[in-house]
Amino acid sequence: MTRLGGPRPHGEGLAATKPVVGLAVGRGTGPELAAVFERVLGALTTAHPTGVEVVRSERLYHSYVSLREEYGVDRIRELTAQDADHYERFCRRLSEDGADVVFRTAINAQSLYLVRRRLRAVKVDLLTAGEKSLLLVRDQAQGFYTGENRHTPHEVTRTLTFSRETTEAVVGYALERARREWGDGRVARVVMAYKFHLLDGAFDAWVADLADRLDVRIEVFQPDTVNRNLITHGLPDRTLLIAGNEWADIMHVVLLDRFGSDRQENRCTENVCLDPGVAGLVEYQTVHGSADDLAGRDLVNPVATIRAAARVAERHAGCPGAVQATETALAVLDEQGVHTPDLGGRHSTTAVVDALLDALEAPGSGGVPRGPALVGGS
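== Isopropylmalate dehydrogenase-like domain-containing protein ==
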């Protein structure tokens, strides 16, 4: 395994003959889930002719709990900035060297959103309910979540920004992604959920101008209006829902329940970077957090991490069928009642992963045989 985090000599790029996957690890249950990710990715890519190289950031990033339990406000601010700067450099170096994917376990939100602002990240999640589907594109690049803090003895002032350039980049990507997800290019409705009334008419004016230029109808609503419509009418099939963090972070789990029929503990999502310097870099993460109370107990639910490994294997490491094979194996685990305690089971993290790999290699499973460990770099 290669570690990446500090400067390297010019021209010393990553191995060009094998797929490269970045790995960034936070505290809490991050190290345990990183091990799950590597193990499952290794099994799913064992047939790859060159192997897969995992490039791990050399820094163990903080969770909010690890910061809050160990440090005071001034030190938290300092470490938050250091984590953000380091993770941004890690992502930019990966992209410069030709990698297009990174898996990250949960880290402190303030550090994370500083990076998402700088890299102009959007979270993408395709939710389905029967034959209906909804594409949620969450704007993580601007707004309250991406703000910076200024402290006085008894006050915190948070400064945030919305920009026309970022808004147009987010909407443009969302439309392109929706047309790609729905193969015939038909998008039934485009809805934006933002607190635009707080921005003196600027935000909805930007969107109206962009809609005219693109010849697309875009409906901009206050979040509470979207909620009322969702409760009363639902949303039509092939709705593209572009939303600010202020609403989407809270509503994601509700939308999962309404459209995805899944729990956040089992879900992974995809973050796409739109900044030109890292355009196309995709970050996968679990929807659940760092679960610091479970750290070191071998009890964290590995399903979301397993699904992330399958997506990386299929979409970025040239292993078609990895996602379906993994879903088939997870269904076997459901039938056998192999679950961690948060899902009502009695199995450890390791036991769940062992059972998954056994199901993948079972005769007639349609899965992949379990192979050797990942081929690492120097």
